[in-house]
Every structure is written in structure tokens, then in C-alpha cells.
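Re: the request from the purification team.
They wanted to know what the chain is likely to look like in 3D before they choose a buffer screen. I agreed to run a prediction and write the result into the notebook, where they can find it.
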Amino acid sequence: MNYVLSEYYRNQAKKLILSDTHHQEGEIFWRSPSNIALIKYWGKKDLQIPTNPSLSFSLSNSYTDTKIKFQTNNVTEKQSIEFFFNNQKQQEFERRICNFFEIIEKFEPFLKKLKLTVYSTNSFPHSAGIASSASAMSSIALGICSIENKLFGTLHSPADFYKKASFLARLGSGSACRSIHNGYNLWGYCDVIENSSDEIAIPINHLVNDIFFNLRDTILIISKKKKKISSSLGHNLMQNHIFAEARYNKAFTNLYNLLSALRSGDLISFSEIVRNEALMLHSLMMSSEPPFILMQPQTLSIIDSIENFCIDTKIPITYTLDAGPNIHLIYHNNYHRQVLDFIQNSIFNTINQENIIFDQLGGGCQLLSEK
């Protein structure tokens, strides 16, 4: 595939070089939501390019706030970055940000002449089964675009601004590119969706029936422990996976069918496809070489309870999981009371109430302040 945006931003980078006499400082403060993938991407190519498109919706109450203080640093051409999480020095993520900035310097060469201090906080507990890297990296990418705009005035158009933010966020964490816009987002080229791209995520709310804008996502935290295997390693194991080709074909089929369900307002088909994607993701992990299992006994127990609840009540609730043991219970707001009763009667005996996060489909990123 011809990576048009990569080439375009690489050419534009020639205009984003600070002179030795340029002196400026400022502060940017962005909020960015996490998102939950309904169609999963599992496997990628170079430059964080997905092997199949993914579709997600942004969350409302689960977000990352990131403040970036910057000033020109003419003493050295090397990176100068400090990272604080909850006002505590966080060296592991600081190294990840440094690696991220090294990757994007070809598109944002001014970064190597800046001294940056990054302060980040999450609205949700760490390791709570919510994609913190998505909200964290997207908020950082938004901050970088704001700094570029302050220094060079290159991203005045909102469309241009958010397109570049999604492009940069993807290079930090693939799913982060889907945390820029509100509602439903598609990442990856799809022949039936205009302007879809492997390089950015695009909003597709105009293709979605109104019924799907009232979804809740109740997150059931089975474990807060660090995953046994990183998502990056899991993606790499797909390169030689025995079921890789079948998976990618099925991902496209599920995507087309989900898009149809979203357009028509078909909650039942929506629920079946989302559940299928979650279970297929974990079956791919279990059939990798070497295999790995991220579900836990409590995960399977709760899934069984959910399945039985759906059979008994005929209520079209569904669930999904990312690369971990925690469950996202997704349902229409009309069924909130029934689902709360179900959780109280069937889930509290498996996990504690403090390990349940009530969220819903929500808005996109937000500029909180700029100085």
C-alpha cells in the first residue's frame, strides 16, 4: 500500500525546524478518552499498520488528562523529556514516550529542540481493563499537534489537526488513533467506507443508527495484575499463526456485518458479532506458538452467567474483552435496570463492587487549557 499521509507529513517536516534564535515556552492540557474495540485488530505490519480494520467506540468516563510544558532547548539536539504519572516520576512510561518521540521526529523535527515535561493522570485505576495506552498516547499526540500549531501555525483547520493527531497517536499505540473523535471510529482501509485509511482512524457516526448512541459499557475487573504477555508480542505472534489468513478474512466479514447492523439498528446482530470477535481474539492467543491464556476462571464463570442471562431474558446484551481477563459488558440504556439487578445477583459473588466501573459511549478529545 502507498502510505500517502506518511509521505505528506515527511515532506511537511521540512517546514517544522526551529531556528537557533527561536525562544518560546508554553503549556498544553488535553483530555483524551479510552476506547473499546468491537472489531479487533490482532496482528500488524511495519509502522503500526493493522492487518485488518478495527471498529471501536470512545468511552465517556474513562480518559487520560495530559499536560505538557514545553520550552525551546538550544543547548542540545537531544531529547529532553520528563514524565510524571499522578505527580510521581514514571520511568517506564518515560522510556516509552522517548521511543515514541524518536519515531515521530521525522514528522516533527522541532521536538529535539524542546525541553518537555509531561504530567499525566487517568480517571480510572491503572490496570483496570481499560486501554490506558490508547488514551495516554492520543492525549500526548494531541499535545504535540498543539505545540506544532503554536510554533508554526500549520494546523489551524480542525480536520487537519485531528487527522495529524490520529496519525501520530497510531505510531505510539495502534488503538490510540481511535481515541481522537467521539462515538464510533474506524481504523484501517475498508473498501465500503470513504476516506478509510490504515494510517488514521476516522469517525463513522453518520453511518450509525440512533439506537447505538445510548450504549453503556460496564467494566468487570477480574484482575489488576500486569499481563503475562504484552500486546506487541501478541501481535507479532500473528505473523506465523496457523489461522492468520482465516482470521483476517473473518475480521472483514464481521466488519461488514457489524456496519450493516449499526446502520439498521439491529441490536441482536450487533451483540452476536461483538461477542464473536472477543472470543476469537482469545482463541487466537490460545492457538499461538507459543500459546498463552489471558482469561481467568472468573472470566469464564462470568461469561457463562452472561450467556445464561441472555437466554433467560432475551435481552440483547453482549460483552467483549481486550488482551486481558477483564470483561466489558455492553448493553442499551433501556436495559440498565435489568443489568444492574443481574450484576448484583450474579456478579457480586465473583468480584467486589469496587472492581466494577460504570461507563458509556461518550465524547472525544477535549482541549482543557492552552498557554
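For the purification team: DSSP finds nine helices and 14 strands in the chain.
Please add any questions underneath this entry.
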